[in-house]
Amino acid sequence: MENTIQLEELFDAKLERGEFIEPKDWMPEKYRKTLIRQISQHAHSEVIGMQPEGNWITRAPSLRRKAVLLAKVQDEGGHGLYLYSACETLGISRDEVIQQLQSGKAKYSSIFNYPTLTWADMGAIGWLVDGAAIMNQVMLQRTSYGPYSRAMVRICKEESFHQRQGYEIMCVLAKGSPEQKAMAQDALNRWWWPTLMMFGPKDAESSNSAESIKWKIKRETNDELRQKFVDRTVPQAEHLGLTVPDKDLKWNAERNSYDFGEIDWEEFWNVVQGNGPCNKVRIENHVRAHEEGKWVREAAAAYAAKKAKAAQVQVA
Amino acid sequence: MPAMSETSHTKALFEILLRLGDNSLVLGHRLSEWCSKGPILEEDLALANISLDCIGQARLLLTYAGETEGKGRSEDDLAYGRLSADYRNALLVEMPNGDFGVTIARQLYYTVFADLLYSALRQSTDAQLAGIAAKAHKEIQYHLRHCTEWTLRLGDGTEESNRRIQKGFDELWAYTGDLFATTEADTQLVQAGIIPDVAALQAAWKTQIENILSQATLTLPQGTWMQKGSRQGIHTEHLSYLLGEMQSLTRAYPGASW
User: Fold this and answer.
1) Taking the model in full, what pTM does it have?
2) Which of A52, B32, B112, B147 is paired with A114 by a 20 to 30 Å CA distance?
């Protein structure tokens, strides 16, 4: 008992000095669990996020767009891989976290439970969804857990590239034919509110926030990040000549920030609980791919075992 | 060459560049259909990578085809503006993905062929084509390693994997002859040293496939009847669906830029 208290003091002191916690360091069990929950959720979000964007690869309207979108979706998969590895440093296997995703025990970002209905959604996702994700991820570069922080530094570089790409798609559409401009506005209408929901519940109602801030896993609160995002994004929408679908949105000179309307929290909680337009289909697709790939993974394992055995025989 | 050959040379080169570019484009498209459906995340990334290489090759080849034709058509005009009868890709690459075994079988058949072809194209007397081929050949060597390794794993893995990939090789066999089909355009360009004689690559291709299959404890299919027609624009039923999907947006908004 004495020992645990001492370890905890050391741990706290380390956080206080702004040092990273590394995989072999002692850490409170709750810190470990929180990180596993958060990192695996982040990894799953990257992987499930491949589906709504993958939906338009085969229909991308030019070869350059096709290549860029494919590269982007591939990056997301790569982020999923680093993050699964970061998770493994906390003592949980990739199989286990994938199992948690498929059983519904682990969540992923609710934003990917919304459908991608037009090409403009590829622009809106890059611009808004990746833009919101970056707010979080920039903060996470300074998160207290070393492997997570380092994964985030790599991921941020790619994400800001994705965000620019998305915005560029929107620029082209907004300057295009009336139909294309309408397509861009429609995408903004559908993605705006779900994007604001990405920052999570209000601070007063966020169960995990306070502790995560104390442990320096998170460095800014949900509401702070959400405000930052709105302040940065509204001028970009104006530049595009598009209208943000919020009648309460207005500049507040006193706060030097935008005031904005209330999120539909009933919708937020429903999507989190599985009632979004695509929750079922996203998980079903993941499970199907996993099951259809079982024989391939088994074959790879069997082949590797045969080769290892043959190599042993040779050595002997 | 005699005077008559200026236009006919241009036409021949255009036809061959379409053949090469369409092969890469259609295969790249098929591989991109695997996105988020791979048997393991690493493989999702690998297939996307190969697909990206193919689309990159297609862009260079189709751009060059458009320049050669001289009617101002861009890579996108050629990719999005032609229907299946004007596509010149081999039948093999338009075949549906099937299970992972079928995809790997298609990939091996094609990639061994592409390795031989692009290796020779690096020596093309057409400097632009030689340059494209040098870049493509580097990528193809990586693709070849990827599908060879999977053929070995699946062939010599489990009973089920052996059965599945053998089925892939068997079912696609009849579409392999068409890879080596030639037309008058080939004859002209072979004489000019621009392309190798594709038909002459078939023996080396078969030996190499046979070696890999035998190492993977698989059997080389024995059928002698081969489907044909791609060089004349006669495709399988699958291609028009693929193009219908690929071109849906550009056809819905004619003239728009993206």
Assistant:
1) 0.95
2) B32
